[in-house]
Write a structure and sequence with these properties.
Order of helices and strands: HEEEEEEEE
Radius of gyration: 21 Å
Largest sheet: 4 strands, antiparallel
Strand order of the largest sheet: 1-2-3-6
Strand content: 35-45%
Number of helices: 1
Shape: globular
Helix content: 10-25%
Structural class: alpha+beta
Length: 164
């Protein structure tokens, strides 16, 4: 075989590989949206509501301001395992630039008395629990997605489109 023949075959093979990769990517199921249930082996999540709440939060003892914006997410989690579980790695928000944001520090101080954060909460088996999380994100963030996750330490993750 000549060098040219090998080069042509390698190029054709590369094009075929790119075609397969593009086909796999386009066959991926779309991310779930608000109100749609996300199920893992050990848990079930539903993002109920996501609201941009402006650039100021009034807390119990202080006011918090940002040059960006705050987003409050309401979600439910059901532990489908047979034992009480907890989550140490809180769900993140991810924007359309793939920047990741965790909940703000001391977020419970900026929630009303009917709301609770996931921090230090025990998730009893087969009981749905409602939680809230507050995130501080840049003003230019858009295309926000909430990252639901399995309860296991290195479990699967699934992004949920928030529509904001």
């Amino acid at each position: 075989m000549t060098t040219r023949t090998v080069s042509v075959r390698a190029f054709v093979l590369l094009l075929a590989l790119v075609g397969v990769l593009l086909a796999c990517k386009s066959n991926r199921a779309p991310d779930p949206k608000l109100g749609e249930v996300v199920t893992f082996d050990d848990s079930q999540w539903t993002v109920v509501k996501a609201t941009a709440v402006g650039n100021t939060l009034q807390g119990i003892a202080e006011m918090k301001k940002t040059t960006g914006k705050f987003v409050k997410v309401e979600f439910t989690v059901t532990n489908k395992s047979k034992e009480t579980e907890s989550i140490l790695d809180h769900p993140k928000l991810i924007d359309d630039q793939d920047r990741e944001y965790g909940p703000i520090e001391a977020q419970s101080l900026f929630m009303d008395e009917r709301e609770k954060s996931l921090t230090l909460e025990s998730l009893s088996p087969d009981m749905m629990q409602r939680f809230f999380a507050i995130y501080e994100i840049p003003a230019d963030s858009k295309g926000l997605r909430f990252e639901a996750r399995a309860l296991s330490a290195f479990g699967k993750r699934q992004k949920v489109v928030l529509g904001i």
